[in-house]
Specification:
alpha/beta; Maf protein; 5-stranded mixed β-sheet; globular; CinA-like_C; CinA_C; CinA family protein
Length: 166
């Protein structure tokens, strides 16, 4: 029985296959998913040829120390924001041997949300081999912590697949 849903494993397998074919190394910078994106990638045999590293940066301090996210960005926009997601993805490339990276930062709940940033709000960014950064904002709603995290993994892997394909 697979650890993760079949569709997640299939997307992770596609990421590994395309990255391997293109000779690309990838990295993941994760907050609310706590390493699940990296876990999905490492569930695939042969992922060591492609996955350089995963950064689990749950705290703001970790985002600053491990990924080089500016304290100013965090103070001005917050951890759950487009600028932070972009900085996390870019930092993952700069601080690894990867040329492609994805980042995830959001509010999985059940608490922690606000009117501006409700539970289920997740920001994603991906850096492609071309250096272009793509941002995506999802509002999954208050569907439960586990469901938000799984949907976030699906979205992050989809963005990573696009990033290794361009």
């Amino acid at each position: 029985m697979p650890m993760l849903p079949q569709d997640i494993e299939a997307t992770a397998e596609a990421v590994i296959g395309r990255a391997k074919a293109a000779g690309l190394m990838v990295a993941a910078a994760e907050s609310c998913t706590g390493g699940l994106v990296s876990g999905a990638l490492t569930a695939i045999a042969g992922s060591s040829a492609v996955l350089d590293r995963g950064f689990v940066t749950y705290s703001n301090e970790a985002k600053v120390e491990m990924l080089g996210v500016s304290e100013d960005v965090l103070a001005r926009f917050g951890a759950v924001s487009e600028p932070t997601a972009r900085a996390m993805a870019e930092g993952a490339v700069v601080r690894s041997r990867a040329s492609v990276a994805v980042s995830v930062t959001g509010i999985a709940g059940p608490g922690g949300g606000s009117a501006d940033k409700p539970v289920g709000l997740v920001h994603f960014a991906a850096v492609g081999a071309d250096g272009r950064v793509v941002h995506l904002e999802k509002r999954f709603g208050d569907i439960g912590r586990e469901a938000i995290r799984l949907e976030s993994v699906r979205t992050a892997l989809g963005l990573l697949l696009e990033a290794v394909s361009r």
